[in-house]
Each structure stands twice: as C-alpha cells, then as structure tokens.
Design a protein that fits this description.
- By secondary structure, the chain is mainly α.
- The protein has one domain.
- It is 62% helix and 4% strand.
- A two-stranded antiparallel sheet has the order 1-2.
- Helix 1 runs parallel beside helix 5 and helix 4 crosses helix 5.
Length: 146
C-alpha cells in the first residue's frame, strides 16, 4: 500500500514535469507553411474563409476527396486553425499525456499500478517512434503522417 502511494506521487510528478515540458515545446513550435492553408475553406485551388461548422465540414470533405483522404488528421488541423494557437497547445499536451497513460494501461490494468520507470520511459521513447510510421503507409495515412 505504501509503495503504491509512493508510485502514485512519483507518477503525478512525472506527468506534471512532462506536461510542462511538452506544453513549452508546443509554445515555441510555430506553424509550418501548409498549416496556414487549413485556416480557409478548401475548394481545391480556390480558398475562402471558414465562417461556421458547416463550412468546416465541407472543407474537410473537399480536402478528403480532392487531396489525400486523411480526414481525421486534416479535419483536426482545420479545426484547430480556427482558434488561437494556445488552444492547440493545451489540446496537444493533453493528447500526448493521454496517449502515454493509455500505453501504460495496456501493461497494467489500473493507473495506480503503473510503474513510474515505465511511465518515464514511455514519454522519453514515444516521440522517437515517429520515424517508425514512415515504413507503414496505412498507419501513416490514418494518423496523418507524411
């Protein structure tokens, strides 16, 4: 019981430190060149401003049919481009932490049983796996990697 309490405190500390680090990394990372295009309604070569949810949905459909079919990744990019970057920074940090916890929950069924060493290794190794997805096009298409 005492060991689980210590592990819980260490896990909260790891998650807090990684969250702050990843949030700061999001803050100093700017948009890429094509990210600005997703701020607008996609018509192919012509673009116009997105004013409501229906135009956003239409833009995602157009992008999917005309370009590459990655509607989840492209739809999220277009959605987040409608708001200030700070909202994306927060959402991206939450998603990164959640994915790390979910990976560890595959090993341990309860979050209080997660080993702090495994949690730390997950957050240190997970960002380096990006190159792995380039070898599997079906995974790359689903998750939006190019």
């Amino acid at each position: 019981m005492f060991i689980q309490a210590i592990n819980w405190i260490i896990n909260i500390g790891i998650i807090s430190i990684i969250s702050i680090f990843f949030y700061r990394l999001n803050q100093i990372t700017g948009y890429a060149g094509d990210d600005f295009l997703y701020h607008f309604l996609y018509h192919g070569e012509c673009i116009s401003a997105i004013h409501n949810v229906f135009e956003w949905i239409q833009s995602v459909i157009n992008q999917t049919q005309m370009w590459n079919g990655r509607f989840i990744a492209q739809g999220l990019v277009q959605l987040f481009m409608q708001f200030p970057k700070e909202i994306f920074n927060i959402a991206n940090t939450i998603a990164f932490i959640a994915v790390g916890l979910l990976i560890n929950l595959l090993v341990r069924r309860r979050i209080r049983d997660v080993n702090p060493i495994y949690l730390l290794l997950t957050y240190c190794v997970f960002p380096t796996l990006d190159g792995l997805f380039y070898g599997f096009p079906e995974v790359s298409i689903i998750f939006g990697y190019r």
